[in-house]
Design brief:
alpha+beta, three-stranded antiparallel beta sheet, 6 helices, 5 strands, 53% helix
């Protein structure tokens, strides 16, 4: 399949990988929640191309919305991910509390939960990355089968 971190993904592929509707994806692009970083929209009918990191952000937002987090809070979480661009996401968790969002490794997460009060939403980035990797492999396997049978 190659290095997924340098691949580009079309809008419909992002929808298949993340479970969001095309309408949601389009709205999020128009409101600058997640804009396609490889090829942004350039008028009606143009094709957007999303990076792996963009797809990961969409998947995190979808996970948060599914767990009952508001879109405004999900925006804060994405900002936190962007601020932690160099972090190893596969060994981190995204933690949302009443006071904001933070990306924490296991030790930092334990400290936050032990010393904190209030409600926390925790998204294991390892789970999100693993899910996305599995879905990418499935899509790659299917496209290989189609190519071979042609």
């Amino acid at each position: 399949m190659g290095d997924v971190t340098v691949m580009g993904f079309s809008g419909p592929t992002v929808c298949r990988l993340t479970g969001v509707t095309y309408r949601q994806l389009d709205y999020w692009a128009r409101t600058d929640l997640v804009t396609p970083s490889i090829t942004p929209a350039q008028g009606s009918g143009s094709k957007r191309t999303y990076s792996y990191r963009d797809v990961l952000e969409v998947k995190v937002i979808k996970s948060l919305l599914d767990s009952g987090v508001s879109l405004a809070r999900a925006r804060q979480a994405v900002d936190c991910l962007r601020d932690s661009l160099g972090a190893d996401l596969s060994s981190s968790s995204l933690v949302l509390s009443d006071n904001g969002s933070v990306l924490a490794d296991y030790d930092g997460l334990v400290d936050l939960l032990r010393g904190g009060q209030g409600v926390f939403n925790v998204v294991s980035m390892a789970n999100v990355v693993a899910e996305l990797t599995t879905m990418l492999a499935d899509i790659d396997d299917r496209s290989e089968k189609v190519t071979r049978s042609a």
